[in-house]
Amino acid sequence: MREFFSGAARSHVRLIAPSLIALALVSCGGGGGGGSGSTSCPGGFLTCSGTGTDNGSTTQTPKVTLTLVDAGTGTATNNLTSGKPLTVRAVLVSPTGLPLANRVVTFTTDSSLAVFDPTSGTRLTDANGLATINLLAADLASSGAAQVTATVDVDGASVTQKIAYAVSPGAVTLSNLTANSNSLSAYGSTSVSVQVFFNGVLTTTPLTVNFSSGCDSNGKASITKSVATINGVATATYTDKGCAGSDIITASLQGTSAQTTIAVAAPRASNIGYVSASPSSMALAGTGGAGLSSSSVVTFKVVDSTNNPVASKAVSFDLSTRVGGIKLNNQASGPVQATSDGSGLVSVTVSAGSVPTPVWVTATLVDDPTIVTQSTNLTISTGRPTQDRFSLSIGTFNIEGWSRDGTTTRANVYAFDRLGNPVADGTVINFISEGAGIQPSCVTAAGSCSVTVTSGELRPRVDSEPSNFAVKAGRVTILAYAQGEESFDDLNQNNIYDAGEVFRDLGDAFVDNTEDRVWASGEREIQFSALNTSACPAYPSDGRYANAPYKAGTCDGVWGNAHVRRNIVLVLSSHVIGTVTPSTFTITPKANPTAVPPVAPVCSASFTFRMSDINNNPLPAGAALTATSSVTYKNDTGDTVKATVSFPPGSDTVSNTNAPGGTFHTVLIEGSKCATDMAGKIGITVTSPSGDASSAELTIN
Q1: Is-contact 672 635, C-beta < 8 A?
Q2: How many structural domains is the chain composed of?
Q3: Is residue 178 one of the residues assigned to a domain?
């Protein structure tokens, strides 16, 4: 044996021994000597156990190698420039140097300098343990240094590797911005192209170019907003929408830009359409008031064959009539011109004259007189109420409101101008009441409007009207008034007031609580002007102003504007019968010389009486009257018989009235074969609309 290991043999052993030791270290992860145990690791495992000097186990981790190469040429570099991406290469191997496939590698970096493609930043290793991802500059101006970090999880162990890179800004220039057609017809389209150079070379990497134009910004054209380059050229589409002139187109990319100009032809007008007249009804010149106007703005629209608006077109206007001095743009005669705006709109102002009339505005295109249209008719009238044609009525005069809240009725106004036409819609009518409750105002439609009156406090209790019936309470005066004009007698029928014509001067309106047409302290006054201190004329003798009183000494002596007004009286009626007058009736037999006996008893009769409530006002309208009979007589056989009593139609209900003193009713008494006169009592019961009842008696002698 000694001979065997001698010489060359010993040298050969010396060579084999280290190799065996190294193989053992690799197989066992570099364990120490001594002890017994496994001498190899199962395939693919990173941890193996062996007997060593530390009596423990040894763990080895895989290795990740990162490199950066130019994505186009594959040349190794760590210099990243916008438009020239780098490829990050990550190679994953086991501790033994074997490639590890199908492992997820996660790449991260400073996103302010660079981004990944794909953006998720994760890739799967292939059979060679290789995972790649492209790294792009965040933008053209990016500059600085950063690291790419690759992280992989292998059987629970996390392996990380980093590699540094620098980002340099690239130089981008735009050149040769041209339109396929620099002279474009109205509403036509054309393409617009620009070349994009990166660092002096036409870029092969897609870059996004932004396009804009002046007409696009105001809706008169459209252009593709963002376009990616193809082989270094970005091409957008421009479409006219009525630009009608020179339009500057701008292409921009990362702070650099280029411009070109397109000449767009103006569209050809093919029609004029009527749009509106505001307002459509005008007041006569000099008669405008609140909410009224003596002029109207009439608007048309110029359009082309596609119904798009056409700007900068001259339009001529004229009137169908100028009777009474109607003016156009304050011009007394002849046509006027105006130019359409960017929306194709063109307007003219019509001013009313002194004569009420319909009027039309004609519009003609100056460039083509065959294109003509007209407005719908405007109406010229006074539009405001005049005193002689201002009316106030009430739905129910005598509501059950003396001792009951919430009973309602309507106060109605009808207002017309001096020609009898309804006043302008929206004319405001104001209301004030002496008592109860009333809505403050209404606005007219077709010349009328109404408000609700509601029973409640205040209930007048100390009035002195009307004195001939000694009515002291329950009567509510309502005043309705509006801005209008004094009435006059238009002798020459020119529909305007001329000096010398008779007019009816109006002083201040007031709530005539006492119903005597004379203002008294405590009665609410509606002052028209503090300057009006002239004496007022007597009321017209025909009674037309009986319910339109005015305060003395508040006229101005000239025809003009005034509060037109009317007063009306509402009764808050009680259901309780106050007085029945007369309440006793005597039957007087009529002499008949041929009869036996010569004076025959009366066998039928009717009696009329006036009935009022406790305030000497009418009972509530619609209250029903019924009668019961205690009137008797003896018939031809000597029996005592009760007469029948009844109210004929018209007398069996309380009428709708505000007459002081109450309402008149007739009761009928009838008998048969009377041998004696009728006598006794008639019971009268009045049942109000609410169901409350009150009774009284009539005596028949």
Answers
A1: yes
A2: 6
A3: yes
Asked whether residue 279 falls in the same domain as residue 215, the answer is no
* Nearest to 368, CA basis, from 308, 301, 312, 315: 315
**Contact criterion met (CB below 8 Å) for 457 and 473:** no
One domain for residues 531 and 467: yes
- 220 and 295 both lie in a single domain: no
What residues contact residue 236 under an 8 Å CB cut-off, 6+ apart? 191, 192, 193, 209, 211, 223, 224, 227, 251
Cα dihedral 598, 599, 605, 611 in deg (nearest 10): 160
Q: Once rounded to an integer, what is the mean pLDDT over residues 354-383?
A: 87
Same domain, yes or no, for 319 and 399?
Answer: no
Please state, in angstroms and as integers, the Cα–Cα distance from residue 500 to each residue in 188, 496, 558, following that order. Answer: 69, 12, 11
- Angle, alpha carbons 212-346-323 (nearest 5°): 175
- Is the pLDDT assigned to residue 32 strictly greater than 90? no
Instruction: Tell me the CA distances in angstroms from 334 to 308, 314, 319, 586, one per residue in order.
Output: 30, 16, 9, 87
For the segment 90-109, what is each residue's pLDDT rounded down to a tens digit? Answer: 999 999 999 999 999 999 99
Q: What is the average pLDDT value for the chain, to the nearest integer?
A: 87
**What pLDDT, on the 0 to 100 scale, is given for residue 552?**
97
pTM of the model: 0.59
Burial class (CB in 10 A: 0-12, 13-18, 19+), 597: exposed
Neighbours of 15 (CB within 10 A): 8
111 shares its domain with 188: no
The strand pairing partners of 696, in sequence order, are 684
Helices (H), 297-454: none
Backbone angles phi, psi at 216, to 5 degrees: -65, -35
Residue 3 lies in a domain: no
Element (H, E) at 8: helix 8-28
The full DSSP string for 390-425 is EEEEES-SEEE-SS-S--EEEEEEEEB-TTSPBPPT
Domain boundary among 264, 279, 312: 264
CATH label of the domain that carries residue 441: 2.60.40.10
What mean pLDDT is predicted for residues 6-27? 36
pLDDT tens digits, residue range 690-701?
999 999 999 999
Report whether 313 contacts 340 (CB < 8 A).
yes
Cis preceding linkage at 422, omega within 30 = no
- Residues 536 and 392 grouped into a single domain: yes
Q: Is the confidence at residue 46, as pLDDT, over 80?
A: no
**Per-residue confidence at 493, pLDDT binned at 50, 70, 90?**
confident
For residue 279, cis peptide bond before it (omega within 30 degrees of 0): yes
In the block, which residue shows the tokens 């109205």? Answer: 186
* Same domain flag for 423 and 518: yes
Instruction: Please report whether residue 643 resides in a domain.
Output: yes
Q: Residue 488: which domain range?
A: 387-573
Same domain, 309 and 443: no
Q: Count other C-beta atoms under 10 Å from residue 518's C-beta.
A: 12
